[in-house]
Write a structure and sequence with these properties.
alpha+beta, 3-stranded mixed β-sheet, 3-stranded antiparallel β-sheet, 8 helices, 8 strands
């Protein structure tokens, strides 16, 4: 017969359910915050990594509202990033992939919140602009003195989808070789023109100025380095 037992299964299930519940914390460990018009629910151990919450939830003050929640006078849109950092330890990256620029104004606003809530590592990360190291920006410049559809296709074919391309054009003049016999297939190609070689060696090749379209193609690419925004240890530690 099998060694299966309903009692054993029940104990195993009960143990698993208990571990599952513990991973989310008990009801007593859950804290609800009212930030502006939004409500956030998280664990006490998550919040006390912040010096502000460590003091406020220490038991020295009894300032919870009647429903047990705590009112926080802060911008909920910014607090969302504060709470995300406390939960994961990962630093926020405010980078616009379409313009390939960082949102420095948003970092400045978040720095004020990080100081208010006493989150030392986040303060240090923003103050020293360590977020810049998360994205590596590279630029390459191509100068095309005679733009054609083929040359533009060549420039653009190797550009990745997350790169930004800036194109500036101007008109200019370029000296173009003239075949002494007037063959259009030799036009602009002295090395491929066999016409009147002796005369050309004595008198030199003939050229004329022709109007051409010139272009400067700047390709800017961004490489994301996720390891550089991963936090380690407690958010308020050293």
């Amino acid at each position: 017969m099998s060694g299966y037992s309903d009692d054993a299964a029940s104990r195993t299930s009960s143990s698993t359910d208990s571990a599952f519940r513990d991973s989310f914390g008990s009801l007593a460990d859950r804290i609800t915050l009212r930030v502006g018009e939004r409500r956030f629910t998280t664990l006490r151990e998550t919040l006390i990594q912040s010096e502000y919450f460590a003091a406020r939830l220490s038991g020295r003050w009894n300032d919870a509202d009647e429903d047990g929640s705590y009112f926080i006078d802060a911008d909920p849109a910014l607090f969302e990033h504060i709470l995300s950092y406390l939960r994961s330890g990962n630093f926020p990256v405010f980078f616009d992939s379409s313009t390939l620029t960082f949102d420095h104004a948003k970092y400045l606003s978040l720095l004020g919140e990080a100081r208010y809530f006493g989150i030392r590592k986040l303060i240090d990360w923003i103050e020293k602009k360590k977020y810049i190291d998360v994205v590596e920006i590279t630029r390459s410049v191509i100068v095309d003195d005679d733009v054609t559809s083929a040359s533009m296709h060549s420039h653009m074919s190797g550009v990745s989808g997350d790169s930004k391309v800036d194109l500036s054009t101007s008109w200019g003049f370029k000296k173009i070789y003239l075949c002494p016999m007037g063959f259009s297939s030799h036009h602009g190609n002295p090395s491929r023109c066999p016409c009147e070689l002796l005369k050309r060696r004595e008198e030199g090749d003939k050229f004329r100025d022709e109007l051409v379209l010139r272009a400067v193609v700047t390709i800017t690419s961004a490489t994301f380095n996720p390891d550089r925004c991963l936090g380690h240890g407690l958010a308020s530690g050293n």
